[in-house]
Amino acid sequence: MQFEFMDRHAALAMTGKKDGQKCSATLQPMNDLAGKHIVLGLTGGIACYKAAELCRALVKEGATVQVVMTEAAQQFITLVTMQALSNRPVYSSQWDAREPNNMAHINLSREADAILIAPASADFMAKLLHGRADDLLSLLCLARPPQTVPLLLAPAMNREMWAHPATQRNVDQLRADGATVLDVGSGEQACGETGDGRMLEAKELLDDLIAFFQPKPLFGQHVLVTAGPTYEAIDPVRGITNLSSGKMGFAIARAAREAGAQVTLVAGPVHLPTPRGVSRVDVTSARDMLEATLTRVPAASVFIATAAVADWRPANAAGQKIKKDGSGAAPMLSFVENPDILATLAQSPRARAGDLFCVGFAAESHDLLRHAQAKRARKGVPLLVGNIGPATFGQDDNALLLIDAAGSKELALESKLALARKLMAEVAMRISAKDKA
Ligand code: C5P
Questions:
Q1: How many whole angstroms from 374 Cα to the centroid of ligand 1?
Q2: Which among 349, 365, 29, 334 is positioned nearest to 203, based on CA atoms?
Q3: Domain that holds residue 379
């Protein structure tokens, strides 16, 4: 089936926006937690200050947040602050008479899509482990129906407390009992010591919670992604690169991780934060990118080439800065072709045997369907994703045209992250169809 691909300009025309004006996908927050009701539990710890920011971030992402605080948490932050940020009265007592049936622990735990305890103190985790329930928060954790209301814990404590065998034993047992114990951060602690045990930052916890709610169709897969431009040196201070921002590739790495895969991201020179849980390798030139990719591909089951690899590099990069000699003559540069990373991997024995699913990208300026179909055949990949390069470089949104042996399919203009999630679902579908065949 043929789909007429809509370029950025056509898509913007439909939305009534002029180019240069951000489209709705970038103006609106992602609302990744829209419709979700989160019980945010705070226990005693200095990291309570981060819970205030987390609460705000959850609300901004579309969630409704019911804060529940232990007595110890109230030593660190007030009910007033958390009520103002969540826009709801905070619960702190199991004897709260506001509930008509006086069973706050039952009501609050039944309404939630998830219970997130942040910060989760060492003492609170020890308490949960034993099923103790002597305050509202531990009571509602025990009362939650585990099949429908997941429990996530964001530990926060001094490094010695975190490393203590008792804490580690408790973490293992809580996981075995069905809780999701999130990572801890590492670094300088409020006590002045340095090590593991800090609570993750609000943004990291937000990303972990969003990822938690995403479906996991790539569980068990290892996805290797190339992203960004490459930089080809002319001399030690000059080089050739391109306008790729790396945003699409980074969004794909994040979406693959959210979808349950182990992810390695080989990134050209870009200043983007590494998505949570993704292992990143920074490279500079096309040849560095090829080497980093070849080293890591044996562990991968999916390879997605989003990088805008320079087609050519200067044949002989000068060892020293090329100087003007006063004659007005420009230096003569000659170029050689760079290795084609995607074509190399797509022709490898593992890819040919169906053990490495390769996905290529095509950034075109016009006639996308025809060019992308030709590129799919030339690169020898099962799935080729076309986009309009000049319309998407540096933007937060994009539109994709997926081309495989069966035909083509359009993914209309929206944020790169939303598209990346849809693309991961498409990849997962093709892998599972291949596995069943
Ligand atoms: O040939 P072209 O650069 O248009 O192909 C684009 C696709 O091939 C992208 O997936 C890109 O990451 C990949 N590629 C590559 N190595 C190159 C050139 C392109 O992996 N040297």
A1: 13
A2: 29
A3: 216-310+337-436
